[in-house]
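TICKET: design request
STATUS: open
ATTACHED STRUCTURE:
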């Protein structure tokens, strides 16, 4: 399934409110799943949000720091296993 917004728009916080975007520098399941829960609760009825992992945020701006850090490709299988494990608890 394609992401409904251009990744460059997410990184530059264009076309979407900043309270719907979270940048996470690395894979930290506890923090990421807290954000997922916050988006799922959606008390402000904003329609969820986007979590972009592998992106560091510029201080005080909320804009993605360039160059993008990303995640090491050799760790993606472990991240996927972690996600499945968290989702089945």
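STATUS: resolved
RESOLUTION: sequence designed for all positions
ATTACHED SEQUENCE:
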């Amino acid at each position: 399934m394609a992401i409904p917004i251009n990744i460059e728009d997410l990184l530059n916080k264009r076309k979407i409110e900043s309270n719907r975007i979270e940048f996470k520098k690395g894979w930290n399941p506890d923090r990421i799943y807290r954000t997922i829960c916050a988006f799922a609760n959606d008390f402000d009825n904003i329609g969820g949000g986007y979590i972009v992992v592998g992106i560091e945020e510029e201080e005080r701006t909320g804009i993605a720091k360039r160059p993008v850090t990303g995640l090491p490709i050799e760790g993606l299988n472990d991240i996927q296993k972690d996600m499945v494990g968290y989702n089945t608890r």
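CLOSING REMARK: The chain has a mean pLDDT of 84. The first strand starts at residue 21 and ends at 24.
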